[in-house]
Amino acid sequence: MKLLRPILLNLITWSIVLLISFPLLWMIVTSLKPQTELFRIPPTWIPETVTFEHYWRLLSETPFLLYFRNSVVLATSTTIFVVALGTLGAYSLVRFTYRGRETLAMLVLFTYLLPSVVLIIPLYLMMVSFGISNTLVSLILAHTTFALPYALWLLRSFMEGIPEDLENAALVDGASRIGAFRDVIFPQLLPGIISTALFTFILSWNEYLYALVLVNSESVAPLTTGVMSMLISAFNIEWSLLMAASVMMSLPLIVVFAFLQSYLTSGFGAGGVKG
């Protein structure tokens, strides 16, 4: 019985893993099949002929690279804004005492609980009044509004784990407040900053609703809306190009997550325990 139990647990675990990863595997396999093999019945689990023609068509005959560049600019800029504002905000909430500090922290979390669709019309009217509607800047600001609250709480949890005595010792030794933050707090906070940056980048990279409503120009569309409008219509779906585009859209996130997954999981753990 003692030997049977771990075997059963392993079988159940691997069955769940295969079930979850099946859509990803099928997406990769489909992207490598020739056009004549896509709709064959029964379907082939392994391509009889591996081809990269769909990737070549995607890169040479469609504006995929333009959408890819827009997504990189959008996700990177949003991440920089959110991490900078979240770090300063978390430092203020943890290290300084002032009236309404806890209320302010709760209000920030409350904004994260609101559905994204509630903020779309106010944000759109604000972008129009600022004269930045239908631009990447409007999307960066919109993404910052829904990513910043959770990032602030995540960084606050990490900041609370840094002993205040370390900063006080630096101040006693003659360091300025900024110098103590740079030399003492920042190195200790770096794992939290990396996990927050990863969370924000993934959130912004995959966001669809705001991009659909706030941007209607192809020149500034990110991958999520650009690929959908390019390959999916009311009468036809380009399955081969769609699968190739999905693989290429997923690739940057998979690579980044593979190298930095420990920071992301530790960040979620810290938020869950201390938040």
Protein model, in words:
- The structure is a single chain.
- The chain has eleven helices and no strands.
- 31% of the residues are buried.
- It has helices at 4-31, 53-61, 64-95, 101-113, 116-130, 136-160, 164-172, 177-206, 209-214, 223-231, 239-274.
- 77% of the residues lie in helices and 0% in strands.
- The two termini are 41 Å apart.
- Helix 2 (53-61) crosses helix 11 and helix 3 (64-95) packs antiparallel against helix 10 (223-231).
Concise structural overview:
It is found in: Cell membrane. This protein is an all-alpha fold and 275 residues long.
Figure out the total of helices: 11
CATH-derived topology: MetI-like fold
Number of strands: 0
Q: Report the span from N to C terminus.
A: 41 Å
Catalogue the unreliable spans. Answer: none
Largest sheet geometry = none
Query: Number of domains in the coordinates?
Result: 1
- By CATH, the architecture is named Orthogonal Bundle
Mean pLDDT: 84
Structural class category? mainly alpha
Shape: globular
Strand content: under 5%
- The CATH class designation is Mainly Alpha
CATH homologous superfamily heading: MetI-like
Instruction: Write down the secondary-structure element order.
Output: HHHHHHHHHHH
Residue share in helices? over 70%
Pfam family, one: BPD_transp_1
Family: Belongs to the binding-protein-dependent transport system permease family.
Keywords: Cell membrane, Membrane, Plasmid, Transmembrane, Transmembrane helix, Transport
Membrane topology: Multi-pass membrane protein
